[in-house]
């Protein structure tokens, strides 16, 4: 058994060295071609499902899109789907199409990411997933829309199946269909780029997006390098599979170390009355790190949260204060004067103030977790921001807690 283990380690080391050599060469080629200058990456838009991916795909698919290529891109897309379901001449495209009020019990309604329809009331629903988790009965709801005239596609980076909570008993290939960015979308976009060969800005925009897709799906942009990697994998298949099966474990493990280090740094400075917790499972959606104070309102706190999972997506930080659980008018009044919160923070029903802070949805950012020096820089930066926000909110949130306490006492006296 010991001999087998030594051979396995040698094989693994050799495989990693050979793959690293090929990847380094690929980096050199990317620099020479100027592929590293990618607007989607520079603007931190790589993993935004609706703002980036659905928006870009929808614009290309739209016969009335700004590309001025008519329905040619849509035609290639339908060919990729092997679908004659839609009348090309009357086809239209809408994003975030409302298909009825959401009703999970009846399995109906919701908003479809990309919606294609024609004058015969036929439709195609494309559910686009990059990092976001599946919604409850989501695929079932879309399959129940426009029954007998509708086809549903589930688009992911690698063409994976939706979770059981989304598809229920539905079967892919029969009730709905799977699409992948790595194959279907890349093939379609390559045809689009060729079609746009006489329109340089459009062509290069599509090429940049193809480079982004290849980056997200871990494909090489140089065909020769790709063939070398494929040969290397074939030659070392068992070793490659062993490495592949442990990549996510490693990412999860080092993200846990990272957040534990952030917690340690925070506990050095937030001492009396403070409670800092890292979620038990970072594989669960919306997990992260929470900071609470004993004198704050019960359901108001500072949090770092993955969108949807810290190790593989963007993360936001800010103040949790769900409209259902707290007086948001009072909360906003007390916090609006805080200078930190005037610096690009947004608001929704759950977060009165939130802002993106981590970008582990990209391989480059995630790689920093495995570099001790870079990881500790991230720890310092994140712990400083969380501490500054927590300290800035300390007194305002305590005032709210006192107001709530006084109100409760008043209400009890009136009841008595």
Element layout with pairings:
Layout: H1 2-33, H2 39-42, H3 49-61, H4 72-81, E1 92-98, E2 111-117, E3 123-128, H5 138-143, E4 150-156, H6 164-167, E5 177-180, H7 181-195, H8 200-216, H9 223-235, H10 237-269, E6 274-278, E7 288-293, E8 301-306, E9 314-320, H11 328-335, E10 353-359, H12 363-367, H13 372-415
Parallel strand pairs: 3-4, 4-5
Antiparallel strand pairs: 1-2, 2-3, 6-7, 7-8, 8-9, 9-10
Fold and architecture overview:
With 416 residues, the protein is of the alpha+beta class. It has 2 domains: 50-182, no CATH class; 246-412. The protein has helices at 2-33, 39-42, 49-61, 72-81, 138-143, 164-167, 181-195, 200-216, 223-235, 237-269, 328-335, 363-367, 372-415, and strands at 92-98, 111-117, 123-128, 150-156, 177-180, 274-278, 288-293, 301-306, 314-320, 353-359. The strands form 2 sheets. It has a 5-stranded mixed sheet. Strands 6-7-8-9-10 form a 5-stranded antiparallel sheet, with helices on one face. The longest helix has 44 residues, at 372-415.
């Amino acid at each position: 058994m010991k001999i087998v283990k030594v051979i396995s380690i040698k094989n693994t080391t050799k495989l990693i060295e050979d793959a690293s050599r090929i990847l380094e060469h690929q980096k050199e080629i990317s620099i020479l071609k100027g592929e590293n200058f990618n607007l989607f990456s520079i603007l931190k838009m790589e993993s935004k499902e609706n703002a980036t991916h659905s928006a870009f795909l929808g614009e290309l698919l739209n016969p009335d899109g700004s590309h001025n290529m008519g329905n040619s891109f849509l035609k290639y897309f339908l060919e990729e789907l092997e679908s004659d379901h839609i009348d090309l001449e009357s086809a239209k495209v809408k994003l975030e199409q409302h298909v009825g009020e959401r009703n999970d019990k009846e399995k109906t309604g919701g908003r479809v990411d990309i919606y294609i329809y024609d004058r015969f009331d036929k439709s195609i629903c494309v559910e686009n997933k990059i990092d976001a988790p599946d919604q409850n009965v989501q695929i079932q709801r879309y399959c129940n829309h426009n029954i007998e005239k509708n086809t549903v596609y589930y688009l992911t980076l690698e063409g994976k199946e939706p979770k059981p909570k989304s598809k229920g008993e539905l079967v892919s290939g029969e009730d709905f269909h799977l699409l992948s960015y790595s194959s279907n979308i890349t093939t379609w976009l390559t045809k689009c780029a060729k079609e746009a060969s006489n329109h340089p800005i459009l062509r290069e925009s599509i090429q940049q997006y193809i480079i982004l897709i290849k980056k997200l799906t871990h494909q090489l942009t140089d065909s020769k390098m790709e063939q070398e990697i494929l040969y290397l994998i074939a030659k070392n298949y068992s070793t490659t599979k062993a490495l592949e099966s442990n990549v996510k474990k490693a990412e999860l493990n080092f993200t846990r170390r990272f957040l534990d280090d952030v917690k340690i740094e925070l506990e050095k400075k937030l001492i009396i009355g403070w409670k800092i917790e890292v979620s038990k499972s970072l594989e669960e959606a919306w997990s992260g790190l929470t900071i609470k104070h004993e004198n704050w309102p019960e359901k108001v706190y500072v949090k770092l949260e993955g969108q949807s999972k810290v190790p593989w997506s963007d993360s936001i930080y800010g103040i949790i204060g769900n409209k259902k659980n707290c007086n948001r008018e009072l909360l906003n009044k007390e916090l609006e004067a805080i200078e930190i919160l005037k610096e690009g923070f947004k608001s929704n029903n759950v977060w009165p103030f939130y802002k993106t802070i981590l970008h582990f949805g990209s391989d480059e950012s995630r790689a920093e977790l495995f570099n001790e020096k870079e990881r500790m820089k991230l720890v310092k930066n994140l712990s400083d921001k969380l501490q500054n926000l927590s300290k800035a909110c300390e007194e305002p949130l305590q005032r709210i807690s006192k107001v709530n306490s006084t109100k409760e006492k008043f209400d009890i006296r009136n009841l008595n």
